[in-house]
Amino acid sequence: MAQNFIWPGKLFYYPIGNTAAVSLIRDLDPDEDAALLLLGCGDPRNILFSVYSEAESVNRRLDFTCVDWDPAVLARNVLLFTLVIDQKPLDISFNIFYHPYFDKAALDLLVSQCSTLATSSANIKTWCESKYGDAIHMSTERTLLTKILTTFKNEFKSTGNIDAARAGSISCSAGPLKVQASTSKSLTEAFKGFWRTGTTFTDLSNISAATLLNPTFIYNRAGMGNGFHYGSDPLMGFHLAPAFGHLPNAKPSDVLEIVRAEFQSWCLAFQSHYSRRLCTVRIFFADALFACAALKMVSSTGTRQTGAPASQWKTDTILFEVEEYRQAPKSFDVVDTSNLDDHVGLVNILATAIPLLQSPGQAILYLESLLHIQDDAVNDFTARLFADLPVMSTLFGMCPIDFATGYSSRSNVHELLLFDAMERSVSAGELRSQFHQVTTWKRVDDGALPCQFQPHQLGTFLYDLYHSLFENDDTRTFHTKHRLNPNTAIAKGGIEHYTRESFVLFLKLVRDRHGYTPDAWISVMDHFFMVNFADHSMPMDTLNFHDLCASLYRHSVYTMDVYRTDVLRRVGVFKAWPSVPPIVRHFITVPRSKLQVFASWPSTPTIVCAMRGPRMHNMFASVHASYGIVTRKGTPAKPSLFFEEDPQGLQGSKPHVLSFVMPAMLLTGQFPGYDDPSSLSISFTVKNNPANVALFVDKLGSRMDIHSVSLMDTENVIVIPEHPPPSASLSSIMNMSKNGAIGGQGPVTVVLDPECELIENMSVRLTVTEKAIQPAYQARTITPTADQVSLSTLRVTLGEKSQDVSFPMPIAGAKYSLRIARKSFWIEIIVPPQEVVIKDGSRPDPFPIVANAKTPIPWSIHRLSRPPSYCRSQGKNVGRMDWTSPGRRLLEEGTEVEEHVNATRRSSQFQTEHIQIMIRAAGLYPQSTSSQRIFCLTDKATTMITRAGDQKRKETTGTYRRARMERKWDETKSERKAAVPLFTGYGRRSSSGSREEPTTPTTSCLA
């Protein structure tokens, strides 16, 4: 388990999304087919909007794999997709999907559609042969949603209740108009009306007709109940800016008209793609992290029997369908993780999702968070990584483009302004509001080879990361670190995301991605443990030592010497076994009555299993839970078990069963300090951390045990051998070198600073193997030079030959140095990583271009291929965009104005020109009486581009702008000679090898 076992408390149901829809294809090359993985997919708004965002001329295929752990969410998605495919009335489809209460017409359509789907999903064969089988695929037999679709059909009521809303805000869906939306009464009225009536209707006759409780809102993975989240609102998933950008006093009916029109546009676009066979949706029931593990296993080993559980509380494992996964994608161009960062942790998401991205090829990872753990929400992202961002990006092989370039093409000014306002309105020590942050991760260069660190530096860095991940486990360390505000730290630290197995999976990714040989990796891990044994700052960490060692062995990452013992004693539970394996799995049965301790507490504590003896105490956090009865099978020499799952789960009557892996050596008593097996006990316990102690120590005592049994209790404890999961190490097939025009290139060597925290420099060694230039190189008649040609690439020139050398991170190419060995025929290129903002305030190459297989594409700017969805303008408000004022003020108050005042660089002037364009286009310029929507950036050799319009606008606006831009261009000519251009990459190289000054492109800026 890469995630802690968190007791669920109250389970909430999220049938509809809580953020505005986004296009998942916004960074992709439009000329290539795309496979997309949606982890924690929720409702299908992002799929529908992505399809809608496609240009009509594009004919590529989109293949979506939708993963969610709630079968009700997946069933609702299938229901909506099939309603759209069948071309059912979209207004009724909207009511079925978004209204907890609906009328008889909606009920009849729901029952009819669910009956059809239940019949079609009797088994995989019947589904594939149905009319939906071509467009909607089921990844596993378990994904077939027959049971829940049948429940939707049968479990409707004429009356019923849903919980009242306690909180809600949909203003975030208005984007840059969030401030205007948050002060509008229309959204508040719509939200209250939804929770009062169970509909979005404003017409009284429609409201009075909607008296039937929609079963798709009350039946979910927890069974029939009322877990619908109190902050849900159907409007959240749509784009509400048009209602506040052009409508002076938008009413709820205006907002709802925009929402329904947008929904209709999305569905019609999906119908069109379906008819052209351009869209495939694959449904996959599983927990996100388990799904990643299973997909990685089937991709690397080809096995369908992954052994990975589908989700917590379920015992069936993920078994992929044979025919489906002969052609279904197992690696992806895009992985979207929703806001799983908030629920499972950023490092867990990166470690499990990155291995599923295509290599080579388009590889984009979208991360999203709504919560923040730091008081400064802007810097919160780096705190979630627990280490330096460039180092972690290098290890992961991907980089967040927003942090690499210092800007984002997706504006979050409205989030910053509202967060700042909320910060000022709350008292010190209180928890702050949500802060919506979206980051895009990409590879800097597909051509970069794996990285190699010095073993002692990487080992030290990894231990520092381990220390940061788990330092709050130690009570003394926690209170020392948070002595100024312990209560806030306790409130924020109640849910912990990481286990020792999380860290091991990260280590495995680092080892495989960078191609470490067994000997080199052993050196890294030896140094890791050397630092670990020398550090005494976390005394409680010793309780988790064997949890770490067992995970290292289980995932074939590293084997401690003590685990290499050839023979373990066959005593106690192992008495009849022919041999004792290094690790075993324990199953412990817990009576239902023991769980009453959680009944009166809405908390979600972290649960662990413990092994105790007179002298021993070990904790194990990778725990899997379920409800049912476990019975022994097999023989004493070859034990196995059978599990009968309780179909009612938490609402059932069968006992609670936990399983976990531990080293067998702890149960033999054969090593110094080890207790006799007969004196050992196995416990189901609440993790001892400050947050849990405050809640449970009075009820459970100092040990925090919920249930404890003797190891020798054969009725309640079963021990069976644990076999490591199949895996295929990438290091055995990793390409560690490549050849070029000059010679062979080795891996990138990364050197950290003396504290092993930051990257000091990166280097690559070229071996000169080209026979034509070897004599001249050895005779010193030619000398190598280098020039930066892209964000992360240096072009090394030696005589008439040149070769590109790629690095995994953006580089400061102007600061490169060379080490030359003429007799040994090698050249070493050394370069530091690029700072996002250099000392004079400028940003190097803010708009990098990368070469894809077919066409160059922007690396840091997403694509817009379609006009905005639904917009309506009224009255005198047309032409003025006062909502741009907050963004303009924030932009003017930032570094751009300081740069303009204190320097004469073209980049500063260029940014200032953009500010002026924004002001004039919005109609906010003091001297303007009306907005000016046509502008052109040009040079002397370019004819200005204009649109049809009145002659006065051409004369007063176009000529003025051209003259001013030409004047600016002439004034900054000397500075431009040494500057890297903003829009044209790094320029062209002339036949003589020198860089030509790039021509400023003609850019038409049309509002």
List the helices and strands and how they pair.
Blueprint: E1 5-6, E2 34-39, H1 45-53, E3 62-68, H2 71-85, H3 90-98, E4 101-102, H4 104-120, H5 124-129, E5 136-138, H6 146-154, H7 178-182, H8 185-197, H9 204-209, E6 212-213, E7 219-220, E8 223-224, H10 241-245, H11 252-275, E9 279-285, H12 288-301, E10 305-309, E11 317-319, H13 324-327, E12 334-336, H14 341-344, H15 346-353, E13 364-369, H16 380-385, H17 389-396, E14 399-400, H18 401-405, H19 413-425, E15 437-442, E16 451-453, H20 455-470, H21 475-481, H22 486-492, H23 500-513, H24 518-534, H25 545-554, E17 583-590, E18 606-612, E19 617-620, E20 624-634, E21 639-645, E22 656-663, E23 681-686, H26 690-700, E24 705-710, E25 717-721, E26 738-739, E27 743-745, E28 748-752, E29 759-768, H27 774-778, E30 785-790, E31 793-798, E32 801-806, E33 817-821, E34 826-831, E35 849-851, E36 856-858, H28 885-893, H29 895-902, H30 906-921, E37 934-937, H31 951-971, H32 973-977, E38 1003-1006
Parallel strand pairs: 2-3, 2-12, 3-9, 5-9, 12-13, 16-28
Antiparallel strand pairs: 1-18, 4-6, 7-8, 10-11, 13-15, 14-15, 17-22, 17-25, 18-19, 18-23, 20-21, 20-22, 23-24, 26-27, 27-29, 28-29, 29-34, 30-31, 31-32, 33-34, 35-36, 37-38
Helix pairs in contact: 1-11, 3-4, 4-6, 15-23, 20-24, 23-25, 29-30
